[in-house]
């Protein structure tokens, strides 16, 4: 899949860079790279006019980016234009790549994405991970990473970083999975288990799914609530193009918002949490189906066939989602709610009752609900792209690593 | 009331300033002013070491701030220290002042706060505003503003801006009160009714209350949820020291989070919203009391006397608040929840059941709940301080106005 890295306002640019001459130069390098990335190809003059620097200043910055292998010359622009023909620039399809990895309850996946946003290598292994110890799972993941990196290196790409999506809570600014109930992992430091060759990021799959939506979705707004599900239900909150992470990194636990405060007990200690009504296991139970791999496919197949019990279970799940989302929308006032992950595939049967709750419980216009085109692909792509974005946001960082 | 403008990391500094040489200079002016403000008084050398600039650079910036009337010299520091004695600097107690105003359901209030954070003038008018047209209310408010400004000017202060707190939803980046149900105002542009002599800000009272907590509270964290009530229930979400406003500016509508989805109908269109259980009118009704002015005082007086009906009503309100806050805490993962406004005065009777819900519904340690020391003073102080902060965050802005 090739996706352009479009974004009108690259919010991450320079956020972490110091306010010095050197910091300003690094921010300007990022502006140049983002400008070219957003357009696919651009002349130096066009870059200059777009980011409001002089042509001379831009040329110096471009030369640096070419030297580092981040930009390349496409040759002279087509004639017939006014003025001296300039050479068009493009983001390099070689050089740094983002390595994304996903630890799913039923699978492991790894991919490499180049600076242009194209997936250049990919490896997947199906098989249940629930209840397995972290070590053998991470050993398998490391093998897949090795395969993908080897494939990428054959195309003159080198890993600029590894980002891993996990179905659980990750402590902020750490590599520690504090709780992943559906893997049965607790306080697991993935940093100690993964290869230490590249910068490592570990984050919740809902967060990476939301970032994928932000970066790759067509017309995704900069403020939205992204809801996804594998076994549990997670959400990610995006405000002004940035993830809201929470003090400990645990924000977005939509699955444990009370929907019916006197409802069934939940493993979290609460009662009547959303997961008790809309989590995949609850829906399977309500639908009278047996759990197996690919729960979503199973539910969708039965609903597709028109089985009323399954449809009713999904309708009730949609109602519970609508109640929890009414609360979330009242608190956050997002521009839209995006259903991603497994929920995207079940949306035909969830949406009517979900939207009925949202609309019925709102005086003004209800918050619109969109279905993610990325669906279950989101977390893996978001992970790989987060590494790519880090390079685009601070190109000078690669000089320390390459 | 005098409060120091302490803050370890002035988050607002330069947020809106362009990334140019000129922008960098303006940010450095802000850093100098914030450093002195945080300490009360400071020598040039101490400022330089604190913000990481050379002594010479700081001297130039300080001279400018003195010329603009934002800093003043306190005279030579006490002898006995090592090195050449420097003159201590302090933020000026004359010059620009923030004018804060509050439109309450039962009162109007205005105050002037100087750059040191001291309230220097104040005016209040009691009287019900519910159901009155905006024009006469704003005319009265304008009279109070005139009195406060005249009093401030006698002390060599001049208004750097006017900020107005209202009990309703304000459209983002506008002066328009979209909906203030307890005043019965809709789509009211206060910009057209207020004097146009100074920069104007209009915002929800919960937002200004939260900012007051952030700026003036002792040890308030940078990520918290601030819950307040006048007649309705509002909340403000602070993330990394900044308000989360929502797409339309309507974030924080905690009062309309569904607590019991099949509960009583609410004016918002929903059912079983938090306001139906914990809004002041609902509590009065449950307690069997007649509405009048100063509802909080009435409830507190009866609860104080040990009236079981009133205590039970407040206990039930606490339970409903706890259910809604469990959802909010799961979504936002704040460091703490702060009860402000009217809720602060009722906290002895609300807190036990509120905390029982929060704790009982959480697997790990529950989010702590604090009671605001500012209470109902918060919104007015937050409004005035927001003007002061704008000056501290961009001192050069006053040169365009003074």
List the helices and strands and how they pair.
Two copies of one chain form a homodimer.
Chain A: H1 21-39, E1 41-43, H2 44-51, H3 55-67, E2 71-76, E3 87-91, E4 95-103, E5 107-114, E6 119-126, H4 134-154, E7 157-166, E8 169-170, E9 176-180, E10 185-189, E11 200-204, H5 205-216, E12 224-229, E13 233-239, E14 242-244, H6 275-278, H7 280-287, H8 295-304, H9 308-332, E15 336-339, H10 341-360, E16 369-371, H11 378-393
Parallel strand pairs in A: 4-7, 7-11, 12-15, 15-16
Antiparallel strand pairs in A: 1-3, 2-3, 4-5, 5-6, 8-9, 9-10, 12-13, 13-14
Helix pairs in contact in A: 1-2, 1-3, 2-3, 5-11, 7-9, 8-10, 9-10
Description:
Two copies of one chain form a homodimer. Chain A is of the alpha/beta class and 402 residues long. Chain A has three domains: 21-91, Arc Repressor Mutant, subunit A (Orthogonal Bundle), CATH 1.10.10; 95-211 and 378-400, Nucleotidyltransferase, domain 5, CATH 3.30.420; 219-372, ATPase, nucleotide binding domain (Nucleotidyltransferase, domain 5, 2-Layer Sandwich), CATH 3.30.420. In chain A, 39% of the residues lie in helices and 22% in strands. Chain A has eleven helices and 16 strands. The first copy, chain A, has helices at 21-39, 44-51, 55-67, 134-154, 205-216, 275-278, 280-287, 295-304, 308-332, 341-360, 378-393; strands at residues 41-43, 71-76, 87-91, 95-103, 107-114, 119-126, 157-166, 169-170, 176-180, 185-189, 200-204, 224-229, 233-239, 242-244, 336-339, 369-371. Chain A has a five-stranded mixed beta sheet with strand order 6-5-4-7-11, with helices on both faces. The first copy, chain A, is globular, with a radius of gyration of 22 Å. The model of chain A is unreliable at 1-12 (pLDDT under 50). Chains A and B meet through strand 13 and helix 9 of A and strand 13 and helix 9 of B. Chains A, B: Residues 1-21 are annotated as: Disordered. Chains A, B: This is Putative NBD/HSP70 family sugar kinase. Chains A, B: It holds the Pfam family ROK. Chains A, B: Keywords: Kinase, Transferase. Chains A, B: Belongs to the ROK (NagC/XylR) family.
């Amino acid at each position: 899949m090739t996706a352009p890295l479009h974004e009108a306002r690259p919010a991450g640019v320079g956020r972490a860079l110091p306010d010095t001459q050197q910091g300003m130069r690094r921010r300007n390098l990022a502006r140049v790279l983002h400008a070219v990335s957003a357009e696919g190809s651009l002349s130096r003059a066009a870059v200059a006019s777009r980011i409001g620097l002089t042509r001379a200043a831009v040329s110096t910055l471009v030369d640096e980016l070419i030297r580092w292998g981040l930009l390349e010359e496409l040759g002279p622009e087509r004639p017939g234009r006014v003025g001296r023909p300039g050479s068009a620039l493009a983001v390099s399809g070689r050089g740094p790549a983002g390595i994304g990895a996903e630890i799913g309850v039923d699978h492991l996946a790894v991919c490499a994405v180049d600076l242009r946003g194209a997936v250049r290598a990919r490896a997947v292994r199906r098989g249940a991970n629930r209840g397995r110890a972290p070590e053998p799972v991470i050993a398998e993941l490391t093998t897949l990473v090795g395969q993908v990196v080897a494939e990428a290196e054959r195309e003159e790409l080198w890993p600029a970083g590894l980002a891993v999506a996990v179905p659980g809570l990750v402590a902020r600014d750490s590599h520690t999975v504090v709780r992943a109930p559906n893997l049965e992992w607790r306080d697991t430091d993935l940093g100690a288990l993964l290869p230490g060759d590249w910068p490592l990021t570990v984050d919740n799959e809902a967060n990476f799914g939301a970032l994928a939506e932000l970066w790759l979705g067509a017309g995704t707004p900069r403020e939205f609530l992204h809801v996804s599900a594998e076994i549990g239900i997670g959400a990610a909150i995006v405000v002004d193009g940035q993830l809201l992470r929470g003090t400990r990194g645990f924000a977005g636990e939509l699955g444990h918002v009370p929907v019916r405060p006197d409802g069934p007990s939940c493993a979290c200690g609460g009662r009547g949490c959303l997961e008790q009504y809309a989590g995949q296991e609850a829906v399977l139970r309500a639908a009278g189906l047996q759990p197996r791999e690919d729960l979503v496919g199973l539910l969708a197949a039965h609903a597709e066939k028109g089985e009323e019990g399954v449809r009713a279970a999904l309708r009730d799940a949609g109602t519970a989602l609508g109640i929890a989302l009414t609360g979330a929308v009242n608190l956050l006032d997002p521009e839209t709610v995006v259903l991603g992950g497994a929920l995207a595939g079940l949306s035909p049967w969830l949406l009517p009752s979900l939207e009925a709750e949202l609309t019925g419980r709102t005086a003004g216009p209800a918050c619109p609900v969109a279905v993610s085109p990325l669906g279950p692909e989101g977390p893996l792509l978001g992970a790989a792209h987060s590494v790519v974005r880090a390079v685009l946001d601070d190109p000078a960082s690669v000089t320390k690593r390459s």
